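Rotation project, supervised by the postdoc (A.L.). Task for the rotation student: set up a whole-complex structure prediction and record inputs and outputs verbatim in this book. Inputs entered:
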Amino acid sequence: MAETSYSLQYIERDSPLHRAYPLVKLGWVFLVAAGLFLYREPLSGAIMLLLVLLTAVGVARVPPSMVIRSSKLIFGVGILLMFFHFFADPGEPVYHVGPLTITDGGLYEGPIFFFRLSVVVLASFVLIWTTDIRDLMVSLTKAGIPYRYAFAVFLALRFLPLVQREVDAVKAAHAIRGRANRSSLVHRFKLWQRYMFTVLINGLRKAEATATAIECRGFGAYPDRTYVKTVTFHASSLWLPLLFILVTAALLYFERLL
Amino acid sequence: MPQPATANTSQNQPLVNIQHVSYTHWNQTEPTLRDVCLQIQSGTLNVLVGPSGSGKSTLCDLFNGVIPHLYGGKLEGDVWIGSENTRGVKVKDLSREVGRVFQDPETMFATLQVDDEIAFGAENLRFQVEAIQQAVEELLLQTDLHTRRNHLVWNLSGGQIQKLGLASVLVMRPRLIVLDEPTSNLDPGATHSVHQMLLALRDEGMTVLLVTRELDEFLAEADQLLVMEAGRILAAGPPRQVLRDHGAYMIDSLGVWVPETSTIGIALHEELPLDGDIPITVDETCDLLSGFEFSPLSVDTNLGNVSSNHRKSGIQSADRPLVVSENLRYVYPGGAEALCGISLQIDPSEWLMIVGRNGAGKSTLARLLVGLARPSGGTLTLFDRPAARWKIQALANHIALVFQNPEHQFLTDSVADEIKYSLLAHGVADGAETERRTAEMLGMLDLKEVAADHPFSLSAGLKRRLGVATMLAGEPQILLVDEPTYGQDRQMTHTLMTLMREIRARGVAVVMITHDMRLVQEYGERVIVMSEGAILYDGATPGLFERDAVLEAANLRRTILHELINNLRRKGIALPEDLRNSGDFVELLRGYKLGQEV
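Outputs recorded:
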């Protein structure tokens, strides 16, 4: 059986990031997100994007092709968001594009929103690529979260590659049906509508089947459960949040100086 | 191997006792189960068969309390597992007693890795860590998954997925295991191996209920055969007895697959005053036939009316081939080689079957042929043009692929609109012409009655026919169908195969990917066998069954009918070459019955 690789799943490697305690990595994602909402300069967002990319490719050794494959949609949406802000934010007019006006406020705020979206999502991807989600679930229960809730997080993350597989299958099937509309845009819109419909219907069916199946396997029979594999916290995991706390503090400090 | 939990029931008390159960789904008005009474003894292997929609899966939902606790609806009567009535016990508590392997075990998987998946159920039931670890090790060995213990569950082959499903239930040490069609999408070798595992479990004291459509010699080992029809238990008892009393009805009216040996036995019992049981195994059938005095036969006189529709082997078409590949290779983006040096040719209006073990590269080959993937090496010429120069949509006018899951292909909200979409996509712009051809397709595929229905609301068989209709609308030269009979009963399989035959009669080459060796034997003219991304055999169907090495390498098995024919030939009995199905064989025997005392 050929090995299928999906861009949003755990990549087995031996790296400092892979060895870090899952809950610490989850905290790191929140830390990165919090920093991005504090920065007032687009440059800070750019530095953070670069740093997260370096963490993914340089430290976690995630193949750059996988980073690009997973992130292109998010970067695309981020760019759209940025353009929206160019035109929608208040400020002094800078350029005119037909009836629309680009403002200086928009040019300043647009990149900030782009970096907020893309860096937070990319940091979440790093968590997925470097964390066996089972370990994440176990670490959440160790932190006192009831295992039913921790498992809900686990199942949601586990579904990502399956949804990706479903989308790929539907896209392939639609591709060979041909195009019934002359307008490429209308055709694309209709296809997206149908992807959403098919993936949603099949996703709901699968979710329902899985919920039934795990109950049939004794899930929830007792208030607690056994864990054959467990995860242990090591203080050495803290290098990741500490590094980013330092960078965030430095960026905020330099922003005040500007 | 984890042993079943200690039984509370005495030797004579059944483990399962279903008393006058009727059940109506919450969103339906008619009951799915009607006054079902059934008993299953401890340590027995029970096989449940019935046509699609007869209530088999609903019956399975009774054993572990999914009905009524999770699915609601109206349940009358009682289901007892040992001394417990399922009404009073929650599903998660019944999981200690009853293990359920679902039709698609992938949906029951809850973790990422193979060993975690096996441990999951036992962890939920708070077994000791050491006990779980020991059980996982034993089950990994027993299911032959020990080399895959750290693999992701979705990177397993079909057979491994089924075995993992079974192991993940066995770890909980249930007293009863219920398996709903676990082998419907497996290659013949994997099916055999799952059957052998179930027999071993029964021999170790486990109680097994298997819902299946793959009845072969394995049935001879079963303790009870249950037959369902329209929500009722039509028959229950020792397999040979049930086959004797209801076999003809099961075949003719219910469309249930029974072993070909039994089909022959049933036909002979109908026509001759034979005593005794219906045979199941090849040896039993040989014994039954020992009363016949076979003599050398003329193939033409005996089988001319039966097999004239099967083309002989070594087909060579005078027309230019539609597809030619030389040393074709395909490598996945991750680096794994899916196809390594495929050379083949597809001729106009031929019927080609592609078989092989799960993961052999059959579906990948299909994706290359329709342009969904590009070759990594070698040459692939499609309709006189290199594959690289084709755009998918232009290629779709020449070659059409019906996916294993037809739902993925649907784009509109009604059956008629699906066909219209295909016509528009293939350049039929005239409204009247579109309407005319839509009506023609609906008629040809018997879809008129559901023309206004939503494609997702159709039954599995109708969905598949609609899938074929949408792909035929473009009038392709090749129709490629991936597992068209997957999960279908005998009646629907026959309907679909008749449809394929009609399509071929219109001049379309039909290429069919399948695991069903009975279909290969009955309908195949040319067959390609694939294993590990390579072609092991490309030739006439009868020749395949003589190649032991090819069959073994591709995890294929001869049909029981072929085993029977071989067995008789070894005894020196001359039989025609072109016996394609049990009907052919019975027809042959009819030639002997007059004047014979059996």
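Student's summary: Residues 133-224 of chain A form one domain.
Supervisor addendum: DSSP finds nine helices and two strands in chain A.
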